[in-house]
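Sequence in, structure out. Go.
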Amino acid sequence: MTKKFFFLLFLFVLFFPLASSAQAIHWEETVMVSRILQEEVLESGNIHYQLEIDSEQGTTELSTQDSFELGVAYTIEAGDRILVEFFADQEEGASTKVYFKDVLRTWSLFWIALFFSLVTILVGRGRGALALTGLATTLCVLFLFVFPQILGGGNPVLSTVIGAIIIMAVNMPIAHGFKKQTLYAFFSTVIGLLFVFLFTTVFVKVSQLSGLSSEDAVLLYWDVESIKLPVGILMAGIILGATGVLDDIAITQSQVVHELTEANPKIKRKKLFTQAMKVGRHHIASTINTLTLVYAGAAFPILLLFIHYSVGLSEFLNSEIVAEEIVRILAGTTALVLTVPISTWFACLLHKQK
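Output:
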């Protein structure tokens, strides 16, 4: 009941201003803050600002409190560029209202990305540069193929699986070289991806998930006509999230086998597989923990909220949004566990005892 209340409140807050301004002209602008007129620090540490801005409408004053009653958690200074929304009634002589929307952080993100790239290249050198090339490939596949396919009415799961295979087919040779070792690792990764698809399908069906547990999923389903099956978006997200770790598992086990054969060229395949699996089991333990922390970190606010409002463990676990995270973790990690022996076996095929 609490969850439904908060969801309805969210929709009311989101759509009420638009409904009440049905006869108003609305537009956004990027403007410069010319002066800070007032700055009020709240007990929470957040701040209310009274700003003077220069826009195409001239010099205007606005308060961040009109948009964020709890204040903003970042600092705004004179000279900063911010995003504002204008609402002008169509009635003659009506005043134009302006509201603070957000700070402009595009350049900040650019410098952060540049710093990340420099660190990657300085430490990883050639491999680091190739990794950045692979990252660019991943983004291109997602934004030029997977997302347009889904929004165009394509099957979310099928589009994501195809996109994931393309990403791995391009990135693995770029990052690790064009050789049989990489090719076999790719094969094992594809098999692991099929395991993720299988377990995701079964686990989602058994746990009776709808894919509509979060407000953003509901809004996507309502606003995008091409989204016919919300649970497909959930499954696609689980598959995509596990893809990167599958790559890591396959390449690591392949490299372990390679190093063992370099150390002892006379080792038999059975012994090689046994030795490599000892390392693989450690990898399984660390990967399960890593994935759990990654998914828990991504869902941190909502998990805290549900723990706060839930009356007991049973109610907490039964809520669909928590069940989604559990299925996300278990489907991905189950496939990863099975990928370890498969990738190890593929890597051992390359070994010829000397």
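Check: Residues 16 and 86 are 16 Å apart (CA to CA). Residues 1-22 have pLDDT under 50 and may be disordered.
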